[in-house]
Design brief:
The complex is a heterodimer of chains A (1024) and B (516). Chain A is mostly beta strands. Helices cover 8% and strands 47% of the residues of chain A. In chain A, the strands form 12 sheets. Chain A has a 22-stranded antiparallel barrel. A 5-stranded mixed β-sheet of chain A has the order 10-15-16-13-14. Chain B is mainly α and 516 residues long. A two-stranded antiparallel ribbon of chain B has the order 2-6. In chain B, strands 3-11 form a two-stranded antiparallel ribbon. A two-stranded antiparallel sheet of chain B has the order 4-5. The chains are: A mainly beta (1024), B mainly alpha (516).
Chain lengths: 1024, 516
C-alpha cells in the first residue's frame, strides 16, 4: 500500500514537472458582478474542463500560454490566455443577439422583445430526424394551444387535423398556412414539405398577431420559413433514415369457435325459439376440431392483414453564399409502405431552391421554389380500400373468422361452409385480396414559386413587390379488373364481368400579387415607429376532368385506348375565387418600454358574391399593447428577473372557408331520365337552397399575456389567457324540414361560439460546454368551448351521434345514458318502457329516463360526452454530453371523450358482425354480466354513454439518441460532421383505451380507419 | 429615378381591382337568374321530377339496403323482409323507432319529388306570355300535377297526416304543421282532375314514359278506390271506363311482362323508367338478386304461395291436382311466374344453371321482376339493372273496375273483368269454377284476384289498409312457419309510418302521430 502511494506521488511529481502545470482559480460573474454558477471553463484544444460552483468559483490546472474558454448559456463566450498569474476573474457579457432574437410575424419580422401579440416560434436545426411523413406533425408536442389529431395511419392519409385555440367555426378549422409568404388554404403543401427544409415554424394565435391576414385568419395562422444559405459557408448536408412502422394497437376479435357460438346466440336472442342457427352443431364441431379447414377456418384477420412496413428518407442539400448572394438547394425523398398488407405505398420527391441577391444597393431580389411530386400506388379504390365504412379495417369486423384467408386450392377465401344455409353466412371481401386487387395511382405535382423585388427608396422606406404562383397538378387512375370469386370447390360465389378504368385530373393554381411599403423611423431616440401598408390580389382557379369506361377485352392493359367500350362517362368542373386585400400596420414603441401595434385589413372575396347585395368586403382591425416592465428603472435592481413583459391585445379576424357561390340559387344539372326505347333526357333540380345574405364569419379575440425570463435568461416563462368569440358562423348544417324538398341548405351566418383558454409554457436551458441540456413543457387548459348561439330561429342540430346545442361544446356527443344491464324481467317491468319495444328483456341495456316522463324515447337523449379535449400537455427534454445526444418529446391530450361504435364494439346488431374479444363476457342467463349486454338484444346499439370512453392519453411522440463521430476521425474523410442515431415516433402511449389508438377523429365510426403506427428508425446525418 | 419609382408605386396602390372582377358565379351550375328562359328549361325541370321517382326509397328499391316501394309487399302478408333492418322487417316486428332510417328516407324522397313538381308548376304558370305554346304548357303542367299527386298518394298511404305543400317554399316558410289525410286526398284529387284534362291520350313512341291521360285517370281511380268512391263523375267506374277506351290491353305472356321485354307493352299505363347502359346510369336495384339464393332480402310468404289456386281454379286444399310434395306443379301459372319453388332454376347464365334449393327462411324465392341472367346491357344479376317498375298496369285497372262493380252490386260485369285477367294465364272463369256468386263472394273473388295478380308490385299494403285487413295480414304472417320472424300487430302503429324523428327535431310545428 505504501509503495502504491509512493508511486502516485512520483507520477504526480513527474506529471507536473513535465507539463509545468499550475493551479488556476477565479470567479465567473455577469456584468453586474453577480456570480454565475455552473459556468463552463475549458482549456481550448483539450478535453479538460470544469464548472464553477454555486459562488461562481472555479479551479483548474493549466499551462502557461494555454487559453481558457469561459462560457455560459445566454452569455457571450470569453477567452483568457493563461499568463503568470494564478487568478483570473471573468466577467461575461449577456449575448444581446439572443435577447434581440428576431421572430417572424405577418409580412415581416420583429424583435421578440417588441412583440405584443401571442405567437410562438420553433426553430429547427440543420438536421431534423423526426420520422414524420407529414411535416404538419412537427407541431406535435411543441406548441401550446395547438391541437393535432391524426385519424388514419395509411400513407397519404396520415396527416393530422390542426385546431388552434379550440374550434371556432362549424366548418373547416384548418389554420391559414403560409410557407415562404405564399398562402395555402389546406395542409397539403405543408404536409408535403420536406421536414429537413424547414427553418422555423411560427404559430400566430391571437387576433393581433394574425389580423394582418384578416379574412382568412380566424382559425389562426401558421407561418413556415424554409432554410436559406448563409454567407461564406459552402455546405453539403446529407440526412437519411430507415424506419419500420407498426400499428400502435391491434384490435382483438373473436376467434372462429367463439364467433360461431356467439352469433348463434345472437340469432337465438334476436329471433326467439324458432331461430335458425347460422352454424349447425356439426359445423361448430368442425370449427372446434379444424376438420374442414376450407369450410370452417379460424382466421385472425387482423394479424393476417396488418404488418410491419418500412419508411425510408433521404435529404441532400447544398448551400452557401457570398456577401451579396446566398443560395440553398435541396433534394428530398421519402418512401412509405402501408402497415396494411397490400400493394399500397407512398413516394414523395422534394426539390426546393432558395436564392437571395442584393443586386444593387437599392434593389434586392429573392426567389423561393418549393416543389414536390407525390405518388401513391395502391389497389383499386385508393384510400377507400382501407379507411372508412367500406375499407379493409372495417372488414376486420365484417369478415367472419370462419372464412379462410385462402382455400387449399389456392384461391382467396370468400365464404365459409354456412353460406348456403337457410340462415346464410355472408361473403367477405377478403381484406387481403382487397389490398392487392386492381390498381390505383395518384400523382400530385405541386410547384410553389415566389419572386420578390425589394426597393430601398430611402434609409427609412422600402417597397416590396412580389408575385407568386402555386400550381398543382393532380392525376389519378383507378382500375378494377374482372374477377370471379369461387368457393373451396371452385363453384362461383360471385363475379364481376366488367372491368372499369376511371381517370381524373385536376389542375389548380393560385396566383398572388403583393405590394408592400414599409417605413421605419426613430424620433429623438425615444420614439420608434414603423409603418406597413400593403395591397394584394389573389386569383384561384381549379379545373378538373374525369372519365370512366368499362369492358376492356383484357386486364393486362389499363389505359382508355386499350379497348374499353361499355358505359363511357365523363365529368368535369371548374371553380374560381378572387380575393382583394388592403392592409396596414403601425408599430410604436417608447424607449422599448411601451409598445403598441395596430393592424387593419380590408378584404373582398368572390365567395360573398350575391345578387343585389354587397357583402363582398369585410374590415378586420386589431390593436395590441405591451409593457416591458423590466425596462423600467424600478426594476433594474430586481436581479433575478431579466425580462418581464405584459401584453394585451384585441382584434377581429375573419373566416371565408365556405363553399363557393352560396349567394346564388343554382340548379344542379346532374340528373337525367329515360324515355322511349333508350332516349336519355337531361333534368335539373334545385338540390340546395341559396343564401343571398352570405357574409364573413368573424372572430373577436382578447388576449392577455406575460413573458418572464429568470435566472440569467435560462428560464423563460410565457403565459397567455385568451377569449375568442366567433359570430356569424356559417351554419351549413342548419336544420331544415326535408319537406322543403332538399336536405341541403346553403350555409347561413347565424351561429356563435366562445373559446376561452389559458396557456402556460416554460423552458429551461442549462449545463456546461460539455453537458448541455434543456427542459421544456407547456400546457393548455381549454376552459371553455361552447356554442353560444345559433341565430334567430336557429334550432339545434342533432346529427346521428352529436349535437350542436347552445351552452355545450361544439359537436358534443348526444345519446342515451346507459345505466347498467337489466338482470331479470321484474327489473324490465319496473323500469320505464324502452322505445315501446315489447321485446326488451334481461341482458339489454337499461337507459336512464332523463326527462322523467316514464318512458325511454328520443326525448331522453342528452349530452353524454365532449369530443374536444380539456387539456393539451406537452413536454420535452434534450441533452448533449460530449459526442452523445438524446432528446424526447411527450405529447398528451386529457379530458376528451370518444365514441367507439364502429368496429366490433356493438353486440352483433346486424347479420354478419364479428365483435371484439371482450364480448365473450357478454350477458347471458348463466353469466349475468353487469357491464356488457346480451348479443342480438333490443336497442343495445343506440348511441349511448355505454360506448363513450375517456380517450385521454400521454404519448412519447418522439425519441432520439445520437452519437457524433469525433472530428479527428471524420476529418480524414472530409466530413465536418457525421452522426448516427436511432429514434422513434409514438413509441409509448399511456391510455385507458384498448384495441384502438386513443387518438382519432370524432364521430362514431372513426375506429374504421387504418390504425396509427409507431416508427423505429436508424439514421445518419452527414455534413461535408 | 426615385421619383418615378415612387410615382409608379402610388399608381400601383390606387388601382385595385373593381367589384366586377371579384364577383363570380358558378361555372358548373345554372344560376336561377338565368333559368326559366326557354321551353327547354321547363322540360329540364320536369325531367328532374321524373328523376326523383328513381330514388332508392321510392321506385328503385334495393337488394341489400333500405327498402322502397318495390319492397313494400314485405309490409303485410305477401313477403318476408329477411334483412329486417332494411325497414319493413322491423316495422312488422314492431321494433321500429321513430328515427328509423329507411322510413325517413322514404319521406325525404317523396318530398324531394314534391318540391321539384312544385317548382315546375309554379314557374310554368309564371312564364312570360308566348314563350311556351299553350299545349306544351298544359302538357308540362299536367305531368307535374300527375307526379305530385302520385307522390302525395304515397304520403297519404304511408304517413296519412303530413304536411301538404303545394308551393315553392322559402326557408322561413318551410316550418309547416301537418295537414290531415283528408286535405291531402282532396288536393290529390284536384290535381288529378286537372291533369287528366290537360294530358294527351297518346304520345310518340320516343316519349314513352311521360305521363298520359290514361295514367292520370288510372291513378285517380286508384285514389278513389282507396276512398271508396265508386260512382259519380269522378268515381272509379267512370274513371276506369274512360281508361278502357284508350287502347290498353293485356300482354299475352304474364311471366315475360316482368322483364325488359314487357316494358313498352300496351299493358303499361305508367312506369318508372330505368336504363343502366353506356349512356346513363339510371339503374334500379329491385330486380337484382344474390347468387346464393334468389333475392334474399324479400321472400314470398307461405300464406301467399298457398293462396295461388291450382290450375283448375280451385284452392289447393280443394283441388285434386295439388300435390303438397311438389307444390309448384299444376298451379295458377302466375304462381310459377312469381315464385321460385324448390328445384326451380333461378340463374340461367351460370354453368351449370343454378337450382333453387329452398334455402330461404320461408322456403320460397321471389321470381317476379327478378333477373335470371345478365341483361342485354351486360348488367349482372346482382348489379344495377334496367327493369322498369310498373306503377300502374292495365290488369290493375281492370281489377279496380271489377272491385268497384262488385262493391256496387254489378256481379256479372265484375266477373267478366276478372275473367279477362284470368284468361291471359289460362285460368278458368268465375262462372266455371265459382259458379253463380253473390255480391260479397264477388268482392272476395276480386280481392283474391288482386293478390295473386299483383303480388310483389308494391300494392298489397295499400289494399290491406283500405280493406281494413292489416291486422289479419299480420296474423297470417305470424302464423306462417317462418323461423326468425315475429310479426307483431300494434294497432295504428302497424298501419302508418312514423314521421321521421329528425323532422320532428327540426320542425317544432310538426307533431308525431299519436300512434307513435
Amino acid at each position: 500500500m505504501k509503495q502504491i502511494n509512493k508511486f502516485f506521488v512520483f507520477l504526480l511529481f513527474v506529471g507536473s514537472a513535465m507539463f509545468a502545470q499550475k493551479q488556476i482559480s477565479g470567479t465567473v460573474t455577469d456584468s453586474d458582478g453577480l456570480p454565475l454558477p455552473s459556468a463552463s471553463v475549458t482549456i481550448e484544444g483539450t478535453t479538460k474542463g470544469t464548472t464553477t460552483d454555486f459562488d461562481g468559483l472555479y479551479n483548474i490546472s493549466a499551462n502557461e500560454g494555454e487559453v481558457l474558454v469561459v462560457s455560459y448559456v445566454g452569455f457571450l463566450n470569453q477567452r483568457v490566455t493563461v499568463g503568470s498569474a494564478n487568478t483570473y476573474n471573468v466577467k461575461l457579457a449577456i449575448d444581446e443577439s439572443e435577447l434581440d432574437e428576431i421572430v417572424v410575424v405577418g409580412y415581416g419580422t420583429q424583435k421578440k422583445r417588441n412583440v405584443t401579440g401571442a405567437l410562438e416560434t420553433v426553430k429547427f436545426g440543420e438536421e431534423l430526424n423526426q420520422p414524420v411523413t407529414n411535416s404538419g406533425q412537427l407541431l406535435y408536442g411543441r406548441f401550446s394551444g395547438v391541437q393535432l389529431t391524426q385519424s388514419s395511419g395509411n400513407p397519404g392519409a396520415d396527416g393530422s387535423s390542426i385546431v388552434i385555440r379550440g374550434i371556432g367555426t362549424f366548418g373547416n378549422t384548418t389554420p391559414l398556412i403560409i410557407i415562404d409568404n405564399i398562402q395555402y388554404d389546406d395542409l397539403q403543401a405543408f404536409n408535403n414539405l420536406a421536414p429537413q427544409d424547414i427553418a422555423n415554424i411560427t404559430v400566430l394565435k391571437d387576433a393581433s398577431a394574425s389580423a394582418i391576414y384578416g379574412a382568412r385568419a380566424a382559425n389562426g395562422v401558421i407561418l413556415v420559413e424554409t432554410k436559406k444559405g448563409k454567407e461564406g459557408q459552402f455546405q453539403v448536408n446529407y440526412n437519411t433514415y430507415y424506419g419500420s412502422q407498426e400499428a400502435t394497437v391491434v384490435p382483438d376479435y373473436l376467434g372462429a369457435l367463439d364467433y360461431a357460438n356467439l352469433i348463434n346466440e345472437k340469432f337465438e336472442n334476436q329471433d326467439g325459439p324458432g331461430f335458425i342457427p347460422r352454424y349447425s352443431e356439426e359445423q361448430i364441431e368442425a370449427i372446434r376440431t379444424g376438420s374442414m379447414p376450407d369450410q370452417f377456418a379460424d382466421t385472425d384477420w387482423t394479424n393476417a392483414v396488418l404488418q410491419a412496413a418500412t419508411v425510408v428518407n433521404h435529404n441532400l442539400s447544398i448551400s452557401g453564399g457570398s456577401k451579396k448572394s446566398s443560395y440553398r438547394f435541396s433534394l428530398g425523398y421519402i418512401g412509405q409502405d402501408a402497415i396494411v398488407k397490400s400493394k399500397f405505398r407512398n413516394d414523395r420527391y422534394n426539390m426546393s431552391f432558395n436564392f437571395d441577391s442584393q443586386v444593387k444597393d437599392w434593389l434586392r431580389f429573392s426567389s423561393v421554389t418549393n416543389s414536390f411530386w407525390r405518388r401513391i400506388e395502391g389497389p383499386s379504390g385508393g384510400q377507400n380500400a382501407f379507411d372508412g365504412d367500406n375499407g379493409i379495417i372495417f372488414n376486420f369486423q365484417r369478415t367472419a373468422p370462419t372464412i379462410p384467408l385462402f382455400y387449399s386450392n389456392g384461391e382467396y377465401g370468400f365464404v365459409d361452409g354456412a353460406y348456403l344455409g337457410a340462415n346464410a353466412s355472408l361473403p367477405t371481401q377478403n381484406p387481403l385480396l382487397r389490398g392487392n386487387f386492381g390498381n390505383f395511382e395518384n400523382d400530385i405535382v405541386n410547384i410553389s414559386q415566389r419572386v420578390g423585388l425589394e426597393f430601398k427608396l430611402s434609409d427609412k422606406l422600402t417597397f416590396e413587390t412580389s408575385g407568386s404562383a402555386n400550381i398543382i397538378y393532380n392525376n389519378s387512375s383507378n382500375y378494377s379488373p374482372r374477377i370471379q370469386r369461387n368457393d373451396w370447390e371452385g363453384r362461383e360465389v360471385s363475379r364481376s364481368d366488367l372491368n372499369t378504368l376511371s381517370n381524373g385530373t385536376n389542375f389548380e393554381y393560385r396566383l398572388l400579387q403583393e405590394n408592400i411599403l414599409r417605413y421605419n423611423t426613430d424620433i429623438n431616440e425615444d420614439h420608434s415607429i414603423s409603418l406597413l401598408a400593403g395591397h394584394s390580389i389573389m386569383y384561384y382557379r381549379t379545373d378538373n376532368f374525369s372519365a370512366q369506361v368499362s369492358g376492356f377485352p383484357s386486364d393486362i392493359l389499363e389505359e382508355f385506348n386499350a379497348g374499353g367500350i361499355i358505359e363511357p362517362a365523363v365529368g368535369g368542373g371548374a371553380a374560381e375565387e378572387v380575393l382583394q386585400s388592403f392592409f396596414g400596420r403601425v408599430n410604436y414603441n417608447f424607449q422599448g418600454k411601451y409598445l403598441a401595434e395596430f393592424n387593419i385589413r380590408r378584404d373582398g372575396s368572390s365567395k360573398f358574391s350575391a345578387p343585389g347585395l354587397d357583402n363582398l368586403y369585410g374590415v378586420f382591425p386589431s390593436a395590441s399593447a405591451g409593457w416591458n416592465i423590466s425596462e423600467e428603472d424600478f426594476m433594474q435592481k430586481v436581479d433575478f428577473i431579466n425580462n418581464l413583459k405584459l401584453r394585451a391585445s384585441w382584434g377581429l379576424s375573419g373566416n371565408d372557408r365556405t363553399g363557393n357561390y352560396i349567394g346564388y340559387q343554382t340548379y344542379n344539372p346532374g340528373l337525367d331520365y329515360l324515355l322511349g326505347e333508350d332516349t336519355v333526357v337531361s333534368g335539373v333540380a334545385i338540390t340546395a337552397i341559396a343564401n343571398p345574405f352570405i357574409r364573413w364569419e368573424e372572430t373577436e379575440q382578447y388576449n392577455i399575456g406575460l413573458d418572464i425570463s429568470l435566472i440569467k435568461n435560462r428560464l423563460e416563462i410565457v403565459m397567455d389567457y385568451f377569449e375568442r368569440n366567433s359570430k356569424d358562423i356559417l351554419y351549413d348544417n342548419f336544420p331544415i324540414p326535408n319537406t322543403i324538398g332538399v336536405t341541403n341548405l346553403r350555409a347561413r351566418n347565424s351561429a356563435s361560439m366562445n373559446n376561452t383558454g389559458f396557456e402556460f409554457g416554460a423552458n429551461f436551458r442549462g449545463g456546461t460546454e460539455e453537458f448541455r441540456y434543456s427542459l421544456g413543457g407547456n400546457f393548455t387548459k381549454l376552459i371553455n368551448n361552447e356554442v353560444t348561439g345559433l341565430g334567430e330561429g336557429g334550432e339545434e342540430t342533432i346529427s346521428n351521434q352529436d349535437i350542436i346545442r347552445i351552452g355545450q361544446p361544439f359537436g358534443a356527443y348526444f345519446g342515451y345514458v346507459a345505466d347498467g344491464i337489466f338482470q331479470d324481467f321484474a327489473e324490465v317491468a319496473n323500469h320505464p318502457n324502452q322505445f315501446e319495444n315489447p321485446n326488451t328483456a334481461p341482458g339489454d341495456i337499461r337507459y336512464v329516463d332523463v326527462n322523467d316522463d316514464g318512458v325511454i324515447d328520443q326525448d331522453d337523449r342528452t349530452v353524454i360526452g365532449n369530443p374536444n379535449p380539456q387539456w393539451l400537455v406537452n413536454f420535452n427534454a434534450s441533452a448533449e454530453y460530449k459526442n452523445f445526444d438524446i432528446s424526447f418529446l411527450f405529447q398528451g391530450v386529457f379530458g376528451v371523450d370518444r365514441l367507439f361504435m364502429g368496429n366490433g364494439n356493438l353486440p352483433m346488431p346486424d347479420d354478419r358482425s364479428n365483435v371484439l374479444d371482450y364480448w365473450v363476457n357478454r350477458w347471458t342467463p348463466e353469466n349475468p354480466s353487469a357491464t356488457l349486454p346480451r348479443l342480438g338484444g333490443q336497442n343495445n346499439s343506440e348511441v349511448s354513454s355505454f360506448y363513450i370512453e375517456d380517450a385521454s392519453y400521454l404519448r412519447l411522440k418522439n425519441f432520439e439518441i445520437g452519437y457524433s463521430i469525433p472530428k479527428k476521425i471524420i476529418s480524414k474523410y472530409k466530413f465536418s460532421k457525421f452522426r448516427v442515431y436511432a429514434g422513434g415516433q409514438n413509441l409509448l402511449t399511456f391510455t385507458d383505451i384498448e384495441n384502438f389508438d386513443p387518438e382519432g377523429a370524432r364521430g362514431r365510426f372513426s375506429n374504421r380507419n387504418v390504425p396509427l403506427y409507431r416508427i423505429i428508425t436508424v439514421g445518419i446525418n452527414a455534413k461535408f | 429615378m426615385k421619383k418615378i419609382i415612387v410615382a409608379g408605386l402610388i399608381v400601383l396602390f390606387t388601382i385595385g381591382c373593381n367589384d366586377d372582377y371579384i364577383n363570380r358565379t358558378s361555372l358548373t351550375q345554372i344560376a336561377d337568374i338565368d333559368f326559366w328562359q326557354t321551353e327547354e328549361d321547363a322540360f329540364l325541370a320536369l325531367n328532374g321530377v321524373y328523376a326523383a321517382l328513381q330514388g332508392r326509397s321510392l321506385y328503385s328499391g334495393n337488394l341489400n339496403g333500405w327498402q322502397g316501394i318495390p319492397g313494400f309487399d314485405n309490409l303485410g302478408d305477401n313477403a318476408f323482409n329477411q334483412f329486417k333492418w332494411e325497414g319493413p322487417g322491423i316495422f312488422m316486428e314492431g321494433t321500429m323507432t321513430t328515427d328509423n332510417g329507411p322510413t325517413g328516407a322514404v319521406w325525404n324522397d317523396l318530398y324531394r319529388g314534391i318540391a321539384r313538381a312544385n317548382l315546375v308548376i309554379e314557374n310554368v304558370n309564371e312564364l312570360p306570355e308566348g314563350l311556351l305554346e299553350e299545349s306544351a304548357k298544359n302538357d308540362i303542367l299536367g305531368q307535374a300535377l300527375f307526379l305530385r299527386a302520385l307522390l302525395y298518394f304515397n304520403v297519404a298511404i304511408y304517413y296519412e297526416d303530413a304536411p301538404l305543400i303545394t308551393q315553392l317554399q322559402d326557408l322561413d316558410e318551410a316550418f309547416v304543421p301537418k295537414n290531415s289525410f283528408e286535405e291531402i286526398m282532396a288536393q290529390i284529387k284536384e290535381d288529378l282532375e286537372t291533369a287528366s284534362n290537360a294530358l294527351p291520350n297518346t304520345r310518340p313512341a320516343n316519349q314513352f314514359g311521360y305521363a298520359t291521360r290514361g295514367a292520370a285517370l288510372s291513378l285517380f281511380a286508384r285514389v278513389q278506390l282507396y276512398d271508396g268512391v265508386y260512382t259519380g263523375e269522378n268515381g272509379v267506374l267512370n274513371l276506369t271506363e274512360q281508361v278502357l277506351g284508350l287502347g290498353y290491353s293485356l300482354y299475352p305472356n304474364y311471366g315475360e311482362l316482368f322483364s325488359e321485354a314487357g316494358e313498352l307493352s300496351q299493358e303499361i299505363v305508367f312506369s318508372v323508367r330505368y336504363l343502366r347502359d353506356a349512356n346513363t346510369s339510371n339503374g334500379e336495384v329491385f330486380s337484382g338478386t344474390f347468387l346464393g339464393s334468389p333475392k334474399a332480402d324479400q321472400r314470398p310468404m307461405p300464406n301467399l304461395v298457398n293462396d295461388y289456386y291450382a290450375s283448375d281454379g280451385l284452392p289447393i286444399n280443394e283441388s285434386p291436382l295439388y300435390d303438397s310434395t311438389n307444390p309448384g306443379e299444376n298451379r295458377d301459372p302466375r304462381a310459377n311466374a312469381s315464385i321460385y319453388f324448390n328445384g326451380d332454376i333461378y340463374l340461367t347464365d351460370t354453368e351449370p344453371p343454378r337450382v333453387f334449393t329452398g334455402n330461404s327462411p320461408t322456403g320460397f324465392g321471389q321470381r317476379k321482376y327478378i333477373r335470371q341472367a345478365a341483361d342485354s346491357e351486360g348488367n349482372q344479376v346482382f348489379a344495377e339493372g334496367s327493369q322498369d317498375f310498373y306503377v300502374i298496369r292495365y290488369a290493375d285497372v281492370l281489377l279496380m273496375r271489377a272491385e268497384a262493380l262488385a262493391e256496387t252490386g254489378d256481379v256479372s260485369s265484375a266477373a267478366s273483368l276478372v275473367n279477362q285477367v284470368r284468361a291471359r294465364v289460362n285460368m278458368p272463369s268465375v262462372e266455371d269454377v265459382e259458379g253463380s256468386v253473390g255480391q260479397q263472394a264477388m268482392v272476395q273473388i276480386v280481392r283474391h284476384e288482386r293478390r295473386v295478380e299483383l303480388a310483389f308490385e308494391g300494392l298489397r299494403f295499400m289494399d290491406l289498409k283500405r280493406w281494413g285487413e292489416v291486422q289479419q295480414a299480420f296474423m297470417r304472417a305470424a302464423n306462417d312457419p317462418v323461423g326468425p320472424y315475429n310479426p307483431n300487430y300494434l294497432g295504428g302503429r302497424s298501419e302508418v309510418f312514423p314521421i321521421p324523428q329528425s323532422e320532428i327535431d327540426v320542425n317544432p310545428q310538426l307533431v308525431q302521430h299519436p300512434e307513435w
